[in-house]
Amino acid sequence: MIETQGLSRRFGAFVAVEDVTLSVRAGEVFGFLGPNGAGKTTVMRILCGLIAPSSGSARVVGCDVRKDGATIRRRVGLLTESPGLYRKLSAEDNLRYFAKLYGVPDPAPAIRQHLTALGLYERRHDPVGSFSKGMTQKVAIARALLHDPELVFLDEPSSGLDPEAVRLVHDFILALKERGKTVFLCTHHLDEAERLCDRVAVFKRKLIAVDTPERLRENRFGVKTHIVLAERSDSLQHEVARLPFVRGVQWRDTTLVVTLTDPESQNPELVRKVVGLGGAVRRVTEERASLEQAYLSLTGSLRLE
């Protein structure tokens, strides 16, 4: 669905995007994560055929971004960070206008479907200028889907939405996936990426990592098994640390915290070893790192900007 090779973009002496080689499969929700100014929007603009790369290549829905920009724009949907709707027109009239630009012959069913799904059908005759930021964002999402694109680019789709509206948009994205659509999702919200995305890319001018949210967490931090014991024993800690599959071990009071790579297969042997060494096990629990921890570790950031 998307294939890039060595994709770069410079603005004068400034390198906004450098050497991006990436593959996005059909039917997946792909998260693109990075701080403000990382170049995420520039990548999206290149992939939508809006600007040309300075070097490298990219194919989107089988089309070359350098040669086939108009074709790509007809076949993909795009939600930009700024909705760009006509404030004096109603939601319905905005969508009719953009449907005409897309060449949709009978847009009424699609307008009804998407405004209903996004909770705006009863407000379809109201001018967009009277809408809240979140409502305007939902109209822009509907606009991106009017022509039934096979690939949808969403730039911060939950920006400015209240929690109820965020959940509605999330459900809407999952419904797109169920229909076989491919979604390229730029987001700052790591819980959003963790819930929605099959794979994510951590990006800061260059690609830092691409994987499933689960593997990003586990590859960066492992999974920690907590073995609560009746008392602590330094000799027990030493022996556990010698196990070949143990990445790290430490005490927290009387809890032995052991970092593993594959707890499903390794926990039974670990617990047998602890019991065999005389450890009085009271309970065993598991601690997994969050995607936020993995992201901050990978980018070297103190916080999301």
Overview of this protein structure:
With about 300 residues, the protein is an alpha/beta fold. The chain has 2 domains: about 1-215, Rossmann fold (3-Layer(aba) Sandwich), CATH 3.40.50; about 225-290, Alpha-Beta Plaits, CATH 3.30.70. The protein has 11 helices and 14 strands. The strands form 3 sheets. Strands 6-7-8-3-9-10 form a 6-stranded mixed beta sheet, sandwiched between helices. α6 (about 165-180) links the parallel β7 and β8. α4 (about 110-115) crosses α5. It starts with a strand and ends in a 6-residue tail after the last helix.
Total strands: the figure is: 14
CATH architecture of the largest domain: 3-Layer(aba) Sandwich
CATH class of the largest domain: Alpha Beta
Mean pLDDT: 90
Q: Which regions have little confidence, pLDDT < 50, spanning 5+ residues?
A: none
Derived structural class: alpha/beta
Q: Could you tell me the radius of gyration in angstroms?
A: 24 Å
The major pleated sheet works out as: 6 strands, mixed
In CATH, the topology of the largest domain is named Rossmann fold
Strand content: 25-35%
Give the topology string: H per helix, E per strand: EEEHEEHEHHHEHEHEEHEHEEHEH
Tell me the distance between the termini.
30 Å
What is the number of independent domains?
Answer: 2
Helices, by number, come to 11
Under CATH, the homologous superfamily of the largest domain reads P-loop containing nucleotide triphosphate hydrolases
